[in-house]
Design brief:
The protein has about 110 residues and is mainly α. About 40% of the residues lie in helices and about 5% in strands. The protein is built from four helices and three strands, in the order ααβββαα. It is globular, with a radius of gyration of 12 Å.
């Protein structure tokens, strides 16, 4: 099921912090928790990469799960986990569903 096909109020040209604030408010997610997890996972860096686990982007999505999340949440096919807009948007949708257990940082 494609979930994220509706337009969002968040700009693809925003910086990571602005994206997290915008999407957390849009999805009704705890903004402070979302910022804390991103700061712990990547230092709020869209370019963050953990070569040991193959985790990428702001919320450090694992390479083996990312393609399925792109499809499930309606991001354009081939979207990179280093794309801050989609990394944050998909993560906020997961947080909205109370899927915080996917992250070590709390």
């Amino acid at each position: 099921t494609t979930i994220l096909t509706i337009p969002s109020p968040c700009s693809e040209h925003s910086d990571v912090r602005e994206l997290i604030i915008c999407f957390s408010e849009y999805y009704g997610v705890d903004t402070h928790k979302a910022l804390r997890i991103a700061a712990c996972e990547s230092g709020l860096s869209a370019a963050a990469f953990n070569s040991l686990y193959g985790a990428s982007g702001v919320y450090q999505h694992l390479r083996n799960y990312w393609p399925g999340r792109v499809k499930e949440y309606g991001a354009p096919e081939g979207t990179s986990p280093f794309d801050a807009y989609w990394n944050v948007r998909i993560s906020m949708e997961m947080f909205r569903r109370n899927m915080f257990h996917h992250w070590v940082c709390k």
